[in-house]
Amino acid sequence: MGKSIKILTVATAILLFIALYLIFGYAQVEKDMLEVQKIFYLHVSAAMTVYLAFGVNFMFSIKYLMKRKSNDDLLAISAAEIGIVFCTIVLLSGPIWAKYAWNTWWNWEARLTSTLVLWLMYVGYFILRSALAEDKRKLYSAVLGIIAFFNVPIVHFATKLWKGKHHPERGSKFDVTSSMQHTWLVVLVVFIGLFSLLLILQYQIKKTESRYEVIRRKHIEETS
Amino acid sequence: MRIVIIVSFLIVVGLVFLAIQVPTLDQKKVDAAIKEAVSESEVTVEDENTVRQAVTLSIEKLESAQRKRLKYLVSAYLVIWLVFMLYLLRLGRQQQALDQRLAQLEQETSDSQTDP
Predict the structure, then answer these.
(1) Considering the entire predicted model, what is its pTM?
(2) Which of A19, A93, A137, A164 could join A43 in a cystine, given CB atoms 3.0 to 4.6 angstroms apart?
(3) Topology of A11-223 in CATH?
C-alpha cells in the first residue's frame, strides 16, 4: 500500500469518527423531523458522491474514446461500480426517510424515479459489458457511460423541472442551520474520501486482473 | 479488511445501543415533580391522581414517538453500513481470487520452465 493511500485511509477514518460525533453530538436536532432528519447527512452526501462517481466515469469514458488506453477504461468501470454502490445507498436510505416523512416507502415522484432510472442505466452498463465480446466491450461501454451521465443533471434538477411536491429542495422543507451545514460538509468529505479509497482499490484489482489476463494468454501461446 | 469490518460493526452496534436508550423517566421522579408543581400551582388541584395519569400518559406517548423515530434512524444507518460492508467483502473476495489465480499461473510458468 502506497504512503499516500495510507494517509488517505487514516485521514478518512479520523474524519469518519469526527463526522459521527458531529451528527450525534453537535448538529442541531431539526424541529419537524427530529432525530430522523439525521439520515439526511448520509443520504445527501451519498447522492453527491454518486454525481462524482458517475462524473469520473463520464470523464474517463471520453478519455478512452479519444486515446483508447485500457487504463482509462479500467478507471471508468471502477468509478461506475462504486457509483452504483453509493446510488444503492441513496435508494435504500431514501425510502426510510420517506416512510417517516410521507408515510409511504416509495412514490413515483420525479427525483426518486430519475434516481432509480440512473441506477438501472449503470446496472445496464455492466450487463452490456458482460454481454459483449472483448474487442467491442470497452468502446460500447464508454459510449453508454457518456450517454448515461446525461441523466445526472436530470436527477439533480428533477424537483425543479417537475415540481415534485414531496422531495425536499434545498432550504424549502426544513431549516438547515449552520451546525447542520458544517456536519453535512464533513460527512461529504468523508464520503469523497471513501470514494477515492474504493476507487484506488477497485482500480488496482482491475489493473492486476487485466495484467494477469495478458500474461496468461502469453503463457498459453508459448506452451501451445 | 477483517479489522475494518469488526471495528465498523462495533461502531454500528454502539450507535444502535446508544440510539435505543430512550431516556425513560423514573415514576418516582415524575410523582415528585407533580407534587412540587401542584404545591406551587396557584390553581387548586382537586384530584392529584388525574393529573398524574395525564402526565404519565403524555410521557409514554412522547417516548413511544421517540422510539419510533430512532428505529427509522438506526435502520437507515444499518442499511448504509451493510451496503458498504457487502461491497468491501466483495472487494476482498475479488482480491483473494486474483491472488490464487496469480499463484497458480506462477506455478504453471515455473513448471513449464523446468520441463525439458
Answers:
(1) 0.87
(2) A93
(3) Four Helix Bundle (Hemerythrin (Met), subunit A) (1.20.120)
- Count Cβ–Cβ pairs < 8 Å, chain A vs chain B: 70
Residues in chain B within 8 Å Cβ distance of A201: 91
Digit-coded pLDDT (tens) for A121-147:
999 999 999 999 877 899 999 999 999
**Chain B contact set for A39 (CB, 8 A):** 72-73, 76-77
Containing structural domain, residue B71:
2-114
d(CA B108, CA B116): 14
Q: Which three cell numbers stand for residue A30?
A: 431539526
**ipTM for this prediction:** 0.89
User: What distance lies between CA B56 and its chain's CA centroid?
Assistant: 27
Domains in chain A: boundaries: 11-223
Q: How far lies A62's CA from each of A58, A140, A142, A145, B2, in Å? A: 6, 12, 7, 9, 37
Find, in chain B, the residue whose alpha carbon is nearest to that of A98: B72
The three cell numbers of residue B28 are 418516582
